[in-house]
Amino acid sequence: MSRCEFIEYKKKRIFFIDVDNCTAEEFEEILAESGKIIRSQPFDSVLSLAVGGEGTPIFTNRGMFVEYLSLNAPHVKASAVAGLPDIKTEMFAGVVSGSSRSLRLFKTAEEGKEWLAGIK
């Protein structure tokens, strides 16, 4: 599976982004690629799920990350982030507060997919 691609889950099209176990450089490349794909979609249409873990370098460039979230916001209907350890979840919440996006945080990818599948 690619690091970012559309998947089907319970008849919903979800944009899946895998940011676990990547270097800071790979993380920025994944964000650049996923941002292009998200911004090519109609406004208020994308259900996105980013899945990270212990090896997710989410704080290498805070400004770039906030810009990524803000630029994609018009295209995203709902967004979930899953799999981050507790400390990274707390730090991530602080980063997200600097953007215009609202995200739901989940322990597992399955929980995130379930929530996104329920979005009308």
Give an overview of the whole structure.
The protein is of the alpha/beta class and 120 residues long. The chain has one domain. Helix content is 39%, strand content 24%. The chain has four helices and five strands, in the order E-E-H-E-H-E-H-E-H. The protein has helices at residues 24-39, 62-72, 86-96, 109-117, and strands at residues 4-9, 12-18, 46-51, 76-82, 104-106. The chain has a five-stranded mixed sheet. Helix 1 (24-39) runs parallel beside helix 2. The model has no long low-confidence stretch (mean pLDDT 88).
By secondary-structure content and strand pairing, the structural class works out as alpha/beta
Shape: globular
Largest sheet: 5 strands, mixed
The count of domains is 1
- The quaternary structure here is single chain
Number of strands: 5
Percent of residues in helices comes to 25-40%
Number of separate helices: 4
Strand content: 15-25%
N-to-C terminal Cα separation, in Å? 27 Å
Order of helices and strands: EEHEHEHEH
Order of the strands making up the biggest sheet:
1-2-3-4-5
